[in-house]
Amino acid sequence: MFFAKAFLGTISFSASLGLGLAQSQVPLVSEDGPRRPNVVFILTDDQDAQLDSLRYMPLVKKRLIEQGTSFNKHYCTTAICCPSRVTLWTGKTPHNTNVTDVSPPYGGYPKFVAQGFNDDYFPIWLQQARYNTYYTGKLFNAHTVQNYNSPYPGGFTGSDFLLDPHTYDYLNSTFQRNDEEPRSYEGQYSTDVVAEKAYGFLGDAVRDLKNKPFFLTVAPIGPHSNVIIKDASKGKGRSVQFGEPIPAKRHQHLFEDVKVPRTDNFNPDHSSGANWLLDLPQQNSTNIEYNDHFYRQRLRSLQAVDELVDGLIARLEEYGILDDTYIVYSSDNGFHIGQHRLQPGKTCGYEEDINVPLIVRGPGVASNYTTDIVTSHTDLAPTFLELLGIPLREDFDGKPIPVVKGEIEVTEQTRREHASVEYWGVAISEGIHQVLNREHNTYKAIRLSSADYNLYYSVWCNNEHELYDMSVDRGQMHNLLDPSNSFSSQILIAGLPITKVVSRLDALLFVLKSCQGLSCRNPWKQLHPAGNVHTLADALDRSFDSFYEAEKTRVRFEFCANGYLVDAEGPMWETQGLSAPYLRDGASWDEWV
Fold first, then answer.
1. 3-class secondary structure for 348-369?
2. How many degrees, rounded to 5, is the angle at CA 72 between CA 67 and CA 75?
């Protein structure tokens, strides 16, 4: 029933804004010659892939999932907003952007500018390739009403950005259009304002299609928490209040009986995870009831996003350019609510936080198709460039994602099977219970998935290790490297002793944690320059046992830091001066460290 109500809400809301397009109003599009494809990229904020949020978005299902390809194993590299978004727009891992937080000194828009990216990132490259570029919604954290013009974000034909301190205030947003002064939209629903601006930019783009194709990014804040930031008086700093998301009034009544999925790792009887998570108390019934409410508010806030997607595609149809346009849907990072006893939030390396939606619809893309090839946010900029026929950059840390069905099936046998994950700094919670502000939530990790194994391996800055065999422990409840586990020596993974598997995983992570460009794209070749190892399964061959078991240098931190400080990072691949020409298969690790 709610599906029908949501769809009717889309029609009535569009009509009330006067956004319906009569066919006579649609600008004509030239039929002369082949068209270069356009792109509409919808980027949500904090949307999970693990907690069923897409199940409650019927228009995304109808317009994108059933008409496109879903990538089930898509991962963000860092489970927090600004570092993740900088990775999206540069194709580089956070340790190579050095934008690792949401605010200075380690992150935010000022750090993005200081690192030199405002003159050399994705929209700049698109404009150099004669694309019109448009953006509305959230760009980066710490992009504010004070610094929006110092400098303006580079590379946009048209822009209308949400600005702090009101970025996450659903009913009191502030936007800044092109080179105009910021404008308050108090009392208007933020996602609806983004929708209206997106439709306007789409119209602008279509009117100039005879000259240039376009790339339009639409970045609403749903389903992010509602955040109220207040500057305190008398020099006492500021207060930041993370409340549950606020839905549009027309969606407030939906999903009354829906609860957070009760998975094995939801508020477990025994603590799970590692490091500081092991100290989290079990949530009481009042806490759980609130978190269920928080979850419902997330789903409700996504209904306006659902309508936005439908409105964009309806207009592409009316303009006659839907078949020439790629539509890509994703989110900056995932979200947890109650898993491992955690309050609502992100910042962890577990599946709920790092696995995010990725759906692609467009020319040559298979309909109603899903794939489990492993992809990450480092791959999106290369993917967009390849789809648009723009040369790739040598310094990309990621590779283009195949989006055509036949290419996907071929790639399933050859594409890398891992995603690199890293985080520095503070773990925070959202909502009203057990507010968390934990420093030194710093770790390196690998998420690795294939037909033969399904693993998560991490090293924390206190040098605590984690390993989960997710083929039998999907919720990451049982750390196989827990020092108190006296049976770890008896555990087998893919039929092999755990120590043998860990030696390979640690070597791979040792390369990935400081890789650059080619060494990120093909880390196994840094370890095996002969090119005869492409996967963990290849590396597990017994002929390499002496190489890995003689290893003297493992991943470790010298100390915990809240940002990317080289002195804290321990031994590093690039700084050791190690490169493929100096390695040979069969050499022991201590010969070259």
1. CCCHHHHECCEEEECCCECCCE
2. 125
Q: Where are the domains of the chain?
A: 35-417, 451-592
Give the whole-angstrom CA distance, residue 389 versus residue 434. 50
Radius of gyration of the chain (CA): 24
Q: Is the pLDDT of residue 167 over 80?
A: yes
Type of residue found at 531: G
Query: Cα 209–122–382 angle (5° rounding)?
Result: 100
More confident residue, 54 or 486: 54
Contacts of 135 (CB under 8 A, 6+ apart): 123, 153, 156, 158, 159, 160, 161, 216, 217, 219
Of residues 76, 81, 82, 520, which has the active-site annotation?
Answer: 81
Domain 35-417 bears CATH identifier 3.40.720.10: yes
Pairing relationship of beta strands 496-497 and 369-376 according to DSSP bridges: unpaired
Q: Note if the bond before 151 is cis, omega within 30 degrees.
A: yes
Q: One-letter amino acid identity for 51?
A: L
Helix, strand, or coil here: 71? strand
Q: Quick: pLDDT tens for 269-299.
A: 999 999 999 999 999 999 999 999 999 999 9
pLDDT at 23 exceeding the cut of 90: no
Question: What are the backbone dihedrals phi and psi of residue 101, each rounded to the nearest 5 degrees, phi first?
Answer: -145, 175
520 counts as catalytic: no
Distance between CA atoms of 65 and 309, rounded to whole angstroms? Answer: 12
CB-count burial class (<10 Å; 0-12, 13-18, 19+) for 36: middle
Q: Which two tokens stand for residue 439?
A: 């420093």
- Per-residue pLDDT reduced to its tens digit, 550-568: 766 799 999 999 999 999 9
Dihedral of alpha carbons 446, 447, 452, 453, sign = positive
* 16 φ, ψ (degrees, to nearest 5): -65, -30
Answer for the pair 379, 73: CB distance below 8 angstroms, yes or no.
no
Q: Which of 195, 219, 456 is nearest to 332 (CA)?
A: 219
Per-residue pLDDT tens over the stretch 170-201:
999 999 999 999 999 999 999 999 999 999 99
